[in-house]
């Protein structure tokens, strides 16, 4: 437990941030606090209505904030490409969006939806933005994972989960992929001698829209913590000078140890190669064989 609060964040004037899924849950207060501290913020969301409403909310709370909406559907690689081409400079990329515990569906490109959105969409986005990130000293990529990663299993022979699909196991697998990606990105960025920081976090159970409880949703809000609290690990990972890269920031802002599977360099390399093949995004500036 640290004494850190969002008030401890440094002045971010001159920095540009992208927050995926910034229209809802943890993403909205993440974008809001970054804007409050002077960053230019892109609310990256799939719905123009919800994205526009988030921009309005941020402007209400932070009059004069530099905030704009840009459309991205992480379940559609063409949309990810279009977003990455259209966006300007980027110092902070917060890979926050996720879809969770849904019946089996596929992305536009035919990937299992939770893996395709939560991992492959962010993998492609990060790779396409890499030249822009590397152009900015001290750039960071924060990927929001979960303690659910610890029960995730990755079977490359059944990536589509056409056999044995489970809503929770598919989510856990996508969150394991988020951590493997974070740590492999860090190793590659370091090996290539770049200053890019790659860090993951786990917000802790937070009352957002991620779990759909219908009439019981207000109860969820009473029992679990607020999105503002849930955003703190992302904000700490994005701005604390104590972060060097490779950390997994937990709900109390302490550094957690990822599961043994998430720490496997061999698995991370294999996932990287498979993700490159599936998305066609190559991370050329930090690639090695
Ligand atoms: N809440 C928790 O207890 C908890 C615990 C551990 C980890 N996390 C992680 O925290 C992060 C934020 O989740 P949350 O709890 O804030 O959930 P949330 O309120 O459901 O927010 C998820 C966001 O992701 C967006 N999204 C989903 N599919 C997308 C797509 N194809 N393209 C673009 N955006 C998409 C959603 O957009 P729409 O509004 O359009 O659906 C929404 O903005 C996730 O990575 C989640 O895994 C949450």
CATH architecture: 3-Layer(aba) Sandwich
Please indicate the count of domains: 1
State the helical fraction: 25-40%
Number of strands: 7
Arithmetic mean pLDDT: 96
Instruction: Report strand order across the widest sheet.
Output: 3-2-1-4-5-6-7
CATH superfamily: NAD(P)-binding Rossmann-like Domain
Distance between the termini: 40 Å
Q: Write out the distinct hetero groups bound to the structure.
A: NADP nicotinamide-adenine-dinucleotide phosphate
If you had to describe this structure to a student in words, what would you say it looks like?
The protein is α/β, with parallel strands linked by helices. It has one domain (about 10-285): 3-Layer(aba) Sandwich (Rossmann fold), CATH 3.40.50.720. About 40% of the residues lie in helices and about 10% in strands. The protein contains 9 helices and 7 strands, in the order E-H-E-H-E-H-E-H-E-H-E-H-H-H-E-H. Strands 3-2-1-4-5-6-7 form a 7-stranded parallel beta sheet, sandwiched between helices. Helix 3 (about 75-85) runs parallel beside helix 4 and helix 5 crosses helix 9. The protein is globular. It starts with 15 loop residues before the first strand and ends in a 10-residue tail after the last helix. The mean pLDDT is about 95. NADP nicotinamide-adenine-dinucleotide phosphate (NAP) binds near residues 23, 97, 117, 146 and 208.
